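P.,

For your records, the input lines for the assembly:
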Amino acid sequence: MGPLIDVSGTYTDAVTSVFSSTIAFKSWFATAAVVLAVVQVLTASRMWGKLRRVIPLSFPVAKRIHRWSGRLAVLCTLPVFFHCVFILGFQTPDTRVAVHSVVGTFIYGVFVAKMLVIREKGYPHWVLPVAGSTMATMLVVLWITSGLWYFTNVRFGF
Amino acid sequence: MERKLWRPAVVLVCISGAVFALAQGQFLAPATPAGSGTVTLGDAYNGELVFEATCAGCHGTAGTGGGIGPTLAGAELDADLIQSRVEQGAGTMPGGLVEQAEVGDIVAYVLGISTK
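Structure tokens returned:
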């Protein structure tokens, strides 16, 4: 297990050269992902013909912002995924952590299923907005049970 | 013709199952450093959360100092001393600030930052 332990140590050293702790790092990246998820919901609403007065964007612009905010959101979740899955693992010591673990287990499955629905035409009309809404809701739940909890119960800072 | 929903459903289940299996493995979890004597080391990541909430006000974030407590990062402390200070206190620091169940966690965390 020696080389694997070094990966963890290198990751921790790299993260703590910028942030005060790995937990703070995760909290901020999760926060960025949630902010981008809000952008995702707003631009998706615009693409589906809603919020025209609130978001005065053309369809192509909303679509471009939707795609790039989605890509950035996924990028933000990758280091968090690495830490949560490979270092912390699935845990259920209390309700908060249990909810976080269960929702976190499913979020990439929902993400890939949503990508599949986008790529393959012919699904029922309601599937894509339901998949997108589910994904955004899961991200918010993950953030509430991690980042928001950290900022309000432990420390608000880098 | 509308597509069946079984394909994305199968993908969802397979990927979630794979993530769950990986999470169960905790393949990159750091090895718990060896304690000494009667000290039992716990989960350093939980210790980090407890430290930031309870101890960082005096010892600084990640034990880097700045408060009324001494700097712990790089202080080369041993597990027995850390446990003793956490349980019994020292100087202006009272003992028992941390719940007994979390003493092992915080000792593991402080041991980690003090030997960096």
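Two observations worth noting. Chain A has a mean pLDDT of 88. The two ends of chain A are 31 Å apart (CA to CA).

Regards
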